[in-house]
Amino acid sequence: MSQSDLTMKDVTTAPPPMLNLSDNDKMTVGETWPIRDVNALFELPLNELMFRAQQIHRVHFDPTEVELATLLSIKSGGCEEDCGYCPQSARHATGLVAKKLLSTEEVLNAARAAKNSGATRFCMGAAWREPKDRDMGKIEEMVSQVSALGLETCATLGMLKDDQARRLKNAGLDYYNHNLDTAPEFYGNVISTRQYSDRLDTLGRVREAGLKVCCGGIVGMGESRLQRAGLIAQLANLNPYPESVPINHLVQVEGTPLHGLAPLDPLEFVRTIAVARITMPKARVRLSAGRREMGDTVQAMCFLAGANSIFYGDKLLTTDNPNAAEDLALLARLGLRAREVA
Ligand code: SAM
Ligand code: DTB
Ligand code: SF4
Fold first, then answer.
1. Please, are residues 73 and 317 in contact by the beta-carbon 8 Å criterion?
2. Catalytic: which of 52, 86, 205, 215?
3. Tens-place pLDDT, residues 236-255
4. Does residue 38 or residue 27 have the better pLDDT?
5. Does the beta carbon of 319 sit less than 6 angstroms from any atom of ligand 2?
6. DSSP 248-315
7. Is 302 annotated as catalytic?
8. Global pTM?
């Protein structure tokens, strides 16, 4: 039957194709997702895509629960890399003042405040291409002391060597965040100072060291829908796929090469969240950068699409995030509750 043969009755009464949950059960860690299948998800009618994402979400998670993770920039600015989206690259004139590595006490004060305001996860980010061995002792101290506060720990420090990944694991680090950022085909438009394969190599070392992987990307950098599907396919085909998948909306910062791009249709961002949820059913899908610019309604749609983690606190790394009171009000408005136990 062609589209034009459909009567109004067919359209209104035909049940949506149901997701077979036994298929979902087969979607175990490591099964591959061809790009065309991922793209086909993007192409679904929005309500069908959302329905499928919600079905999968509630098989693995309480759909009313959202994780609160607080970010802290432990070393800001002055980075030698040329990532086109990033305000912290020394190559972009963003006016950001570079700072040296924070002291362990400064990090612990921020971690205590995060815990007191309800966060269960604390992510420490450094504007480095890679950590220097001379900084590792201090990072280990920060990780072990934040962990001792009863917070889940995450760090994002750039590329890692084998022994650095092992040292972080031994210090008590739970997650390492290292993003693929975009599809391999689009990557060269955004970054030239390190290769996609370098990122995959670091992810392999992180996994090998026994750390949980937090890996995602950025949407709204001028990539096509197929390239968004390419990013999700890369993530979903990691074996195993990441435990934690941050989906960032580009925050356009004046002075960065990506500032001034035409805005992405917000529903395309929502679709990306839904496709991440379907293809990585057990992952925590993190509604990451860009929430301040998004407004409550788009965020609500992201939660409906299966996002179940947010960055919580007035700042991301260097840019603004909704403040804690705004976020608690949003969760209350939506009848969602913060995850309580780390
Ligand atoms: N320097 C380390 C690295 O690049 O791996 C760690 C910190 S880096 C800032 C972590 C991630 O933040 C990047 O991979 C990117 O996905 C995200 N990010 C940075 N600037 C952003 C922006 N303007 N909008 C959205 N996400 C951004
Ligand atoms: C991730 O994927 N997003 C966070 C976290 N991992 C480190 C960082 C977002 C940074 C947004 C720009 C800034 O604040 O500098
Ligand atoms: Fe440096 Fe990371 Fe920013 Fe790239 S994303 S410029 S590596 S801080």
1. yes
2. 86
3. 999 999 999 999 999 999 99
4. 38
5. yes
6. EEP---TTSTTTTPPPPPHHHHHHHHHHHHHHSTTSEEEE-TTHHHHHHHHHHHHHHTT--EEE-SSB
7. no
8. 0.93
